[in-house]
Amino acid sequence: MKNRNQKTSDEDLGSLAPRLAMIPKQNDFKVPEKYFESFAESVHQRIKTKPSESAKVISIFAVKKLAYGLSAAIVLLVCGIYYYNNYTTVPKQDLSAFQITAADLSESNYLLSIDEDLIIETALASNIHSGNTSIDYNDIEQYLIDQNIEMNQLIIEL
Amino acid sequence: MSDTPDSELVLLFKEGDNKHYAFNLIIKKYQERLYWHVRRMVVDHDDANDIMQNVFIKVWNHLAGFREESQLYTWLYRIASNESMTFLRQKKTRFMLPIVDVEHELSNKLSDDEMYDGDYIQQKLQQAILTLPARQREVFNLKYYENMKYEDMAEMLGLTMGALKASYHHAVKKIEKFISNI
Question: Is A31 touching B (CB cutoff 8 A)?
Fold first, then answer.
């Protein structure tokens, strides 16, 4: 039965592909000596080997997943930077109010370096008086009396 | 003992007491047919050997759950076919090669292979076969070299008989054209 099927198949091949049909069907591949005799034993050896002893294989799909994860993280980072730059910063025209020049810094350093005793001495020497701050001692005393504020109590609180 | 029917071998394996013995009989019965099928797909002996080991390790792990809805022989071929296809896919992915370059590489390997001693026309035939897409090559090999019945092939590959016949027809035409141009 098999031979008849084979013959039918070959006849079909002859009409379909005459050149191919002329080539003898043969197996020219070779195997190492006694390969098939020892094959079953080699399979049993592999089966006996515990899975933990076998080499760990990292799937290419795991690497792909890592690549996808990294790509997603980079895209998110770029989007985040873009959003931060375009939607969360103070408009440029407002920044001028906060801009500090080198001259400002220099003036600030100069003022901080002045001794306050020197300022007081200078003020006294110049006899600087503000019109509104020229208050007579008697007037102060009168004010305290009017407000019923005890002078000693005021000194303690100070 | 290699004439023991498949159903008896499966039963012997499932009973457990003679599991190793039954497994050995299955290997002895099918190793050569499966090996040549795999070897024609991947060309290199070492690759074919690795695939065959994986095939029989899977058989060992899963035969107890084999429901015998299909024949043992087509079930074994299906595992061998899947392992071969997985190997070729991995080869393509690992080396970032288009599948045509994998076939090209296999073809070059064939001409340098000490484990192949075909004459000029046989080498050309193998090169022609290697120009086919992997699945079509498998269908061609199963029909041309192993004379497998279409219905068994359909059971093994999960394809319709019509699709298989068309695939074989196209494969033969392509090979004929390749050989005619030599």
Answer: yes
- Which residue is it, tokens 């370059």? B101
B58-94 pLDDT, tens digit each:
999 999 999 888 899 999 999 999 999 999 988 877 6
Determine, for residues B117 and A42 on separate chains, whether the beta-carbon distance falls below 8 Å.
no
pTM: 0.65
Contact B36, B145 (CB under 8 A): yes
Report the sign of the C-alpha dihedral through residues B124, B41, B33, B147, in that order.
negative
A32 in contact with B, Cβ within 8 Å? yes
CB neighbour class for A21 (10 Å; exposed up to 12, middle 13-18, buried from 19)? middle
Chain B contact set for A44 (CB, 8 A)? 20
Structure tokens at B104: 């090209």
Q: Which of B35, B52, B176 sits opposite A17 (nearest CB)?
A: B176
Rounded to 5°, the CA angle B138-B1-A48 comes to 70
How many helices (H) and strands (E) in chain B? 9, 0
CB contact under 8 A, B122 and A16: no
Residues in CB range of B32: below 8 A, 6 or more apart: A36
User: What ipTM was estimated for this complex?
Assistant: 0.85
